[in-house]
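Lab notebook, bench 4. We co-purified these components, and the gel suggests they stay together. Before we commit to crystallization screens, I want a quick structural picture of the whole thing.
Request: model the full complex, all chains together.
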Amino acid sequence: DIQMTQSPSSLSASVGDSVTITCRASQDINSYLNWYQQKPGTAPNLLIHAASTLQSGVPSRFSGSGSGTDYTLTISSLQPEDFATFYCQQSYSAPNTFGQGTKLEI
Amino acid sequence: DVQLVESGGVVIQPGGSLRLSCAASGFDFNDYRMHWVRQVPGKGLEWVSRISWDGSSIDYADSIKGRFTISRDNSKSSLYLQMNSLRPEDTAFYYCARGGYGSCLDFWGQGTLVTVSS
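Here is the predicted assembly.
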């Protein structure tokens, strides 16, 4: 199984800051890397698929990059509604494993 | 609009069986792979299973293999998860999700809570 390692596990930032979350796969996943945002008490929401493609309706301050085993999610100019937990997921091969999550706090 | 509505979550004793359902609407269910994902309250996401559009290809997480069975009924636009030999560690919110481009999970249901406890 492919292991996904996210860092950091938690992050403190302020409105207007830019932050970066990283995700490392245990093997090459050929950009089959997705990012989700989850707010308390709600289902996850897809932000980015295929490493860098922004899902429809997601603000452009969210961006993704990476290839091979290493990927990043960047949020520029943080807004109050961005504070949540973020997960990466590989969809290269089953089981489609998730990272352990990164909690972004004010 | 795409909607996924899970049902079937209850409190059940260890060793018991349960079937979760997910009713889909707002899209052509026949065209999409579907997934189950679970989340222990306060913890991270765990991918559980997926099924191809026609049911011919199925995959499971090791943690539930041999105990859970995914299935679908395209005539009813419904996805199912049969859960047998339930354990306390299966306690979680269970989400169904639509498989989008590259098997990302582009739409999610609101989740249903399964509690395995004596």
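Chain B has no helices and eleven strands. Worth comparing against the SEC data before the next meeting. The CA atoms of residues 29 and 55 of chain B lie 12 Å apart.
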